[in-house]
């Protein structure tokens, strides 16, 4: 089983990041996130067939790293994808005059 291909992260707002990958039929995908590209936490688990997911509740102006691997159950998993990253948008500041 190959690692997820074309795995990319795109920040679309101050708290949302969209992840995309090339779907692989019949497997699941585990997605992990890191703030330092060193310490990883699994944050998402879904069918690989989806090819994308939208992640919410991120902090504004923050760089996030992501990696993923395919999972076929019973401990069978691919190697990790290449790491991808993006920075969420800055929060808007409102000034009153």
- Provide the gyration radius in Å: 15 Å
Tell me roughly what share of residues is in helical segments: under 10%
Distance between the termini: 60 Å
Estimate the mean pLDDT confidence: 89
Q: What is the ordering of alpha helices and beta strands?
A: EEEEEEEE
Category from helices, strands and their pairing: mainly beta
Oligomer, anyone?
single chain
Gross geometry: elongated
Helix count, per DSSP?
0
Low-pLDDT runs: none
Instruction: Report the portion of residues in β strands.
Output: 35-45%
SS elements, strand count: 8
Largest sheet: 5 strands, antiparallel
Note the main attributes of this structure.
single chain; about 100 residues; mainly beta; five-stranded antiparallel sheet; three-stranded antiparallel sheet; about 45% strand
TL;DR?
0% of the residues lie in helices and 44% in strands.
Structure description:
With 97 residues, this protein is an all-beta fold. Helix content is 0%, strand content 44%. It is built from no helices and 8 strands. It has strands at residues 8-11, 17-20, 28-34, 41-47, 52-55, 63-73, 76-77, 84-87. The mean pLDDT is 89.
């Amino acid at each position: 089983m190959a690692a997820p291909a074309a795995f990319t992260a795109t920040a679309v707002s101050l708290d949302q990041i969209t992840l995309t990958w090339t779907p692989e039929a019949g497997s699941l995908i585990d997605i992990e996130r890191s703030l330092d590209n060193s310490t990883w936490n699994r944050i998402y688990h879904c069918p690989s067939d989806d090819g994308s997911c939208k992640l919410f509740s991120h902090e504004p102006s923050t760089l996030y790293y992501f990696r993923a691997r395919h999972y076929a159950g019973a401990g069978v998993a691919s190697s990790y994808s290449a790491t991808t990253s993006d920075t969420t948008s800055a929060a808007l500041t409102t000034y009153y005059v």
